[in-house]
C-alpha cells in the first residue's frame, strides 16, 4: 500500500514514478530457490513433456509454485487453512 501511495503521489507531482518502482524493488526481500525444489520441478516438467497428463501438469505446476514462491511460508499456511 505504501508503494502504491508513493507512486500516485509522485505521479501527481510530476516526478517520474519509476523512481518509486526502483526503490520498492530494492526494498523487497528476495532469496534464491532451494536446489532440491528446483530439481524436483525440472524432473516433473520432463515427465510432463514425455507424457502430458493432467496429473503431471498439476504436480509440475505445484512444484514450481513451491520452488519459486518468495512467500513460501505464507502461501503454505494459506493452503493448509483452506484444506481444514
State the gist of this model:
The protein has helices at residues 2-13, 18-27, 35-50, 54-68, 72-83. It is mainly alpha-helical and 84 residues long.
Task: Describe the fold and architecture.
- With 84 residues, the protein is mostly helical.
- Helix content is 77%, strand content 0%.
- The protein has five helices and no strands.
- The longest helix is centred in the middle third of the chain and has 16 residues, at 35-50.
- The radius of gyration is 19 Å and the shape is elongated.
- The model has no long low-confidence stretch (mean pLDDT 75).
For the structure shown, list the relevant keywords.
single chain; 84 residues; mainly alpha; 5 helices; 77% helix
Number of helices: 5
Structural class from helices and strands?
Answer: mainly alpha
N- and C-termini, Cα separation: 30 Å
> Which residue ranges are poorly predicted, with pLDDT under 50 across at least 5 consecutive positions?
none
**What spatial form do the alpha-carbon principal axes imply?**
elongated
Strand segment count: 0
The averaged pLDDT comes out at: 75
N-to-C order of helices and strands: HHHHH
For the largest beta-sheet, the strand count, sense and barrel status come to: none
Helicity level: over 70%
Q: Please state the CA-atom Rg, rounded to the nearest Å.
A: 19 Å
What's the structural blueprint in terms of helices and strands?
Layout: H1 2-13, H2 18-27, H3 35-50, H4 54-68, H5 72-83
Amino acid at each position: 500500500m505504501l508503494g502504491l501511495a508513493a507512486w500516485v503521489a509522485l505521479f501527481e507531482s510530476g516526478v517520474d514514478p519509476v523512481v518509486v518502482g526502483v526503490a520498492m524493488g530494492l526494498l523487497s526481500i528476495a532469496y534464491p530457490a532451494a536446489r532440491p525444489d528446483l530439481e524436483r520441478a525440472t524432473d516433473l516438467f520432463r515427465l510432463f513433456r514425455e507424457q502430458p497428463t493432467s496429473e503431471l501438469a498439476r504436480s509440475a505446476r505445484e512444484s514450481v509454485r513451491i520452488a519459486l514462491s518468495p512467500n513460501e511460508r505464507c502461501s503454505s499456511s494459506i493452503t493448509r487453512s483452506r484444506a481444514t
